[in-house]
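Memo to structure team: turn this sequence into structure tokens by end of day. - J.P.
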Amino acid sequence: MNILLTNDDGYSMNGLKVVFDILSKKHNVVVVAPNEVMSAKSVSIIIGSPIEVKKIDEHTYSCSGTPADCVAFGLSSLDTKFDLVISGCNHGLNVSYDTMYSGTVGACLQALTYRVPAIALSCDSNFAIVEKYLDSVLDYINDNNLLSKEYLLNVNFPLGDYASEIKMTHVYYRKEVTYYSKTGENLYLALRDIDDENCTDTDSDVYAVYHHQISITKMKKTFDI
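Reply from structure team:
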């Protein structure tokens, strides 16, 4: 299988390297990823100015654009027909409203516009759990025929160092709101009060990651093509 691998943390980050090492044992993997941190870019793209793409090594390209730019370039401009896009593994969970802002998820939404299945991978900070369970997650996805051109799969690995099961979930509806604290003249800092740990929605992505479950959520694009 030909896999396009990207992220929103940058092409040199450990989470991407962990996923590349695992995938490349069985597949042809090409990395097109940002040359610097592009977190919270969602599906934004660079318009009106060129992006710079550099070949780092045989399998890796760095891109000055967003994660969505990386995917668009990889799928349209490289001499490879990709079967799958994988984004991550992100340093930080992408659950609940995080998914709206996430560049990790945004890269996968971009893939769907090219009619290519996509998987977003995220964990809190412990990439060892990704090394331990990624093959099992991919087997679960394949065994259950979950790959689709109609939706992406948002995968979140649980907090802690082990997973008891893989569970299909839905996006949790958080009750918090964003508010702003004044930090200086004309300066305001965005803040959020999040109480994910006390989530009681047992079928949600948030509940899963706090209860040693690997969460897989189908996320559909908002238009039909």
